Amino acid sequence: MTAVTASAIRVEGLEKSFGEVPVLRGVDVEVARGSIFALLGANGAGKTTLVRILSTLLAPDAGTARVHRFDVVREAGDVRESISLTGQFAAVDDVLTGRENLVLVARLRHLKDPGAIADGLLARFALTDAGGRKAATYSGGMRRRLDIAMSLIGDPPIIFLDEPTTGLDPQARLDVWQTVKALAGAGTTVLLTTQYLDEAEQLADRIAILHDGRIIQNGTLEELRRLLPPAEVEYVEKQPSLEDVFLALVGKDIR
Rounded to whole angstroms, how far apart are CA atoms 173 and 255? Predict the structure, then answer.
């Protein structure tokens, strides 16, 4: 099996500038099928630009990128049929109920029995009880789960999640993390961009650190940890974290 067919995403020498400002300066990335790949970087590092190129929303200046074996420039239509993109803000229609949002997307994709598709996704994302309520009444975590559910209609093999937990409270973040893990467990390839180190640590099979338009490190969590000297072992009494306190007080811990 060649590297191209074994990989869900393969990027070589990708460059992109906006005017005189270079954003991507020769990015090389390879994402294995069925894995969670985290692209970690600060604001302005180029994460969203890379995702926009991979999802055919933006053309690169140089280099090549293949998604599900298709070239993002020459075979953009095939790429779009193979992916789904969830941006930083939920693309949910607040006027519609959760179920109506899902039915609408299924109809737009010309799928058979959109009602059954909607009901299945509501159950999969623990939204059945809220399916008849308007999306405007949903919490942040519920809206994000509905947004991801909408993006999965049509069973795309690859999904891009661009900073999916931005603006969410701690409990909602954990809900989304569980959803992402379940996606990969079902065989979906997930490329996740984030600026949160704990998010990459909790979710990713591999992590690439994007800085100043370049991938400066790429590996598993253990491989990245080995870049630093071993820590000195000391006895330290562990105190509860703020997250531990928060989850204890609100009475829910899905971990």
Answer: 11
Distance set, CA 55 to CA 72, 78, 101, 184 (Å): 7, 11, 22, 19
In DSSP terms, which residues pair with 37 in a beta bridge?
A: 191, 206
Query: What pTM did the predictor assign?
Result: 0.81
DSSP secondary structure code for residue 137 in this structure: G
Structure token digits, residue 14: 């990708």
For residue 20, pLDDT over 50 is answered with yes
Name the DSSP class of 97. Answer: B
CB 215 within 8 A of CB 49: no
pLDDT digits (tens, 9 = 90+) for 141-168: 888 889 989 988 988 999 999 888 887 7
| Cβ atoms of 65 and 14 closer than 8 Å | yes
pLDDT in the model for residue 155: 86
pLDDT tens digits, 54-69: 999 999 999 999 999 9
Q: How does strand 70-71 pair with strand 158-162?
A: unpaired
Please state the CATH superfamily assignment of the domain spanning residues 33-58+83-92+138-226+241-250 in this structure: P-loop containing nucleotide triphosphate hydrolases (3.40.50.300)
Structure tokens at 128: 């059945």
Torsion of CA 30, 33, 34, 37, to 10 degrees: 10
Helix (H) / strand (E) element for 32: namely strand 21-32
* Residue 100 in tokens: 């109506």
